[in-house]
Amino acid sequence: MNFVRFAVRRLLEMAATLLGASFVVFGAMYLAPGNPASFLLGGRSASPAALAAIDRQYHLNDPFIEQYARWLGNILHGDFGRSIEYRTDVSHLLSSRLPTTLLLVGMALVVVVLLGLALGWAGAVRGGATDSAILVGTTFAIGTPAFVAAILLQGFLAVELGWFPSSGSGSGDGIAAMLWHLTLPAIALALYLVGMLARVTRSAMLEQLTSEHVAVARSRGIPERHVISRHVFRNALGAVLTTAGLIVSSLLVCTVLVETAFSVGGVGQLLELSSTTKDFPVVQAISLIIVALFMTVNLIIDLLLPVVDPRITLGTRATG
Amino acid sequence: MNTTEQHPADTPRPAPGGRPNTPAALDIRNLRMRLPHTARPVLDGVDLTVGAGETVALVGESGSGKTLTSRTVLRLLPAGTTTEGTVHVAGDDVLTMNARQLRHLRTRTAAMIFQDPRAAINPLRRIGDFLTESVRLNKIMTPAAAQARAGELLEAVGLTTEVPRRYPGQLSGGMLQRVMIAAALMGDPTLLLADEPTTALDVTTQAEVVALLGDLRARFGTGLLFVTHDLGLAAAISDRVYVMYAGRIAETGPAASVFARPRHPYTKALLDSTPGLDAPPGRLVAIDGQPPDLRREPTGCPFAPRCAHATELCTTETPRSMPARGEPAHTAACHHSDRLEGTPGDA
């Protein structure tokens, strides 16, 4: 009951935030410098009549609020408008690219979670040389921007060794080809976040390791591996889950860079291209989708948090 | 220090030393312990026994080594500690156990009740899980049997059977300490260690928990080592008392005798600084000075710098434990015990 009310409230909050975000996304493109009509004409001079026709087709002369309302109404009906650059429906453009991006982000997320948790766990539990090595490694990982990692990975694993393709998404050649093409982009995308999650996991587990209830569990003869899994790691999960929101948002943003670096034909690359060509219906649609994805992930995390930490919905969070 | 009244317990207790032919629940012999980077040992020749089914109080101020002594019984030692001497629990030496024997000791033979139950119980797991996890994970009981035993013990400590479904944050401190006590009894131990089990509780809850511990100890026949800085509590619950100072046993004997006729100036000073309802009004007497710190090796009696009776002898020669005349069970490590004799027949 308590949980249901919590979920409903979060859903309503999400709807409100999404509405606000749509306004910002639309407004930003409206305020941005440059005129899509002039871009569309490719520098050629056009008759005032032709310009007026374009303005009319894209409703560029309507008042802002009217344009916004029309755009939002269409989106609610599943119509994201037409791309100026590609002269096709935005939804058509996205339907071929969104799966690629989701697969890439999903692969990176798996790498981040598996490797980040494993390294953090090992560092906290083993200590000593293992911990020092992990600290040094994660420092490098955190200090390496995704585009630098992309260049290094392309240089060594793709060009020098030829183990992986250096660009493209392999879409159309089946799932195996896609996984193979997206391995390097996923690693480049994951690297920084592996370092970050490992650090968060490590410090949360170290904090638990020195806590009284862990000492008590040991004093009760609980085998050490159970002490680690049931008390240390279990109690560190809250911090890990909170970080997961940050991880997903970072993945969604960095995928623009990585897709561009590896020429992966995904939504991120499309966003980058469309921004430079002022293809505003595409930019708006992708921005809104990224915001919606990010908020959905946060909603899921919010709903999972009370499961991981029962003190949250019960409203009895301890003060010490 | 709280204001619990000093009064003798009104329930009969087994004779000191416990039943014949059973090994003592706890037998510590000449325990010496050093922590890294310290000049003097934190424990310096501690001798302490708890007979089967006997209740013993270990009293002293912070830093006297009482908590360390009780933790040694479960070998919960800080890293880098070196120990000498022996610690036998139900006949087995704790200090030489391997990992498996140690786990057996901690699940089946001895259990500790900690000071702050809020910190001692994982806040993210249900009470039922906490109660049964040790016996389940060590395969001592099936989950069903463990659950049944947990139910019985919860009833014994005065809690209802819906408590296992709750989280620690939903219970009061007193209830949690009852849970802690029930958890300690899960493996049917020979020895219970209670390390200041009432310090984190309010006064009325303290009295309930102490009474409960006394009842359960009698009902389950476990030995109890009760570690406290509270003399009133020690007098109320224990058969025998050990008073600790600077890592040594300053005085020991039957509770009634030690409190009525203290033979060590430190015990006397502690008694004088304990507030009580029946004490005459006026200022409490504090003990001047500080306990010796661990960085210097003291010579002679460690209490001498704070002692009103100290003489030349006290600063040069360390006193050995000597029994009182006519009462061999009551010993004190003081050169001048005889000058402290309280008014006889006052017990």
What does this protein structure show overall?
The complex is a heterodimer of chains A (320) and B (347). Helices cover 78% and strands 0% of the residues of chain A. Chain A has 320 residues and is mainly α. Chain A folds into two domains: 2-76, no CATH class; 93-309, MetI-like (MetI-like fold, Orthogonal Bundle). The longest helix of chain A has 38 residues, at 224-261. Helix content of chain B is 30%, strand content 20%. Chain B has one domain (1-122, 190-347): P-loop containing nucleotide triphosphate hydrolases (Rossmann fold, 3-Layer(aba) Sandwich). In chain B, the strands form two sheets. In chain B, strands 6-7-8-3-9-10-12-11 form an eight-stranded mixed sheet, sandwiched between helices. In chain B, strand 4 (82-89) and strand 5 form a beta hairpin. Chain B is built from eleven helices and twelve strands. The interface between A and B is medium-sized, with 26 and 30 residues.
What does the secondary structure layout of this molecule look like, with pairings?
The complex is a heterodimer of chains A (320) and B (347).
Chain A: H1 2-31, H2 36-40, H3 48-57, H4 64-76, H5 90-126, H6 128-143, H7 146-160, H8 175-209, H9 212-219, H10 224-261, H11 267-276, H12 280-308, H13 311-314
Chain B: E1 26-34, E2 43-50, E3 55-59, H1 66-73, E4 82-89, E5 92-93, H2 99-109, E6 110-113, H3 117-120, H4 127-137, H5 143-156, H6 173-185, E7 191-195, H7 203-220, E8 223-228, H8 231-237, E9 240-245, E10 248-254, H9 255-260, H10 265-272, H11 312-316, E11 322-324, E12 327-332
Parallel strand pairs in B: 3-8, 3-9, 6-7, 7-8
Antiparallel strand pairs in B: 1-2, 1-4, 4-5, 9-10, 10-12, 11-12
